[in-house]
Every structure is written in structure tokens, then in C-alpha cells.
Amino acid sequence: MAERQYVIFKLCGEEYGVAIQHVQEITEYKQATSVPNVPDFIEGIINLRGNITPIVSLKKKFNLQEKEIKESNRIIIINLMDKQVGFIVDDASQVLTMDEKQIENPPELLTGIERQYIIGIGKVDEKIIILLDLEKILTEKEKQEIQAM
């Protein structure tokens, strides 16, 4: 059985996971500089070690209740089309190894774009972890807008 490692993070009390090989780094939250005329789920940009990095609010993208961003929030940095992009999460606390038998396919009730970025449902003890592909969360149009920033 193949084992895979996932970075586990929280949004609104729910746990999500993303394959560790897609994550460049996890950093503390930094206030983003607003950019005009961008989609509302883009918080803005930050300077991360000399790289201008667009920051996406996963809560806004997923239409979850937006709470005030706190110092305890984290930013998960991935490489998207040769550009660093950050995703704000409530907490990114651990790396978890899961066996293939602990992962089920997404439920059939998911249709449309959600079906593309939810790659599986992880079951660890009594917990359910929604496994995401952060590279597929954004539409092609949204990716192009981020590239243009």
C-alpha cells in the first residue's frame, strides 16, 4: 500500500489536507496589501522574501463564513504556474501520513468545479479530512488574473 503525506489545515473548524509535495512552505500570516480590480477572494499581495505573492482567502473562495483574520492564521504557499501563491487558512498544524485504504473518492453529490479540486476524503480514527488539490481550486480565468498581478 502506498502512503502519502498531507499538510493538514483548518477552515471554520473543519480539517482539510493538501499533498505535501504541492506545498512550498507554511508561513505566519502577514497583512496583505490590497490590489484594485481583483476577484473578492484575493486578499491582496505580500512581499515574501523578495517575491510578490498573491494571497487567496480560501474562506471567501469556498463561501464560508469569514471571520476576522488573526495572528494565529497561516499562509500555505504553493507554486502555481511558476508563480508563488498563498492561501490563508485558520491553522496549519501537522503533517499526516495516510495509507491509500484510508482515502475514499469524493462523494457523488459533488458536481461541477468542486469535483475537480476535492480529490478525496481521508478517514483517520473518527476524523474526516477533505483532501484538496490547491492547484485546481482556481479556474483558468482566475489563474490568468493572478499571473497578471
UniProtKB/TrEMBL annotation:
Alphabetical keyword list: Chemotaxis, Cytoplasm
UniProt keyword Cytoplasm, yes or no: yes
Domain CheW-like: 3-143
Keyword Cytoplasm: yes
Cellular component annotations (GO), alphabetically ordered: cytosol
InterPro entries: CheW, CheW-like_dom_sf, CheW-lke_dom
Location(s), subcellular: Cytoplasm
GO biological process: chemotaxis; signal transduction
Pfam families assigned: CheW
PANTHER family the record matches: CHEMOTAXIS PROTEIN CHEW (PTHR22617:SF23), CHEMOTAXIS SENSOR HISTIDINE KINASE-RELATED (PTHR22617)
Protein's UniProt name: Chemotaxis protein CheW
Gene that specifies this protein: cheW_1
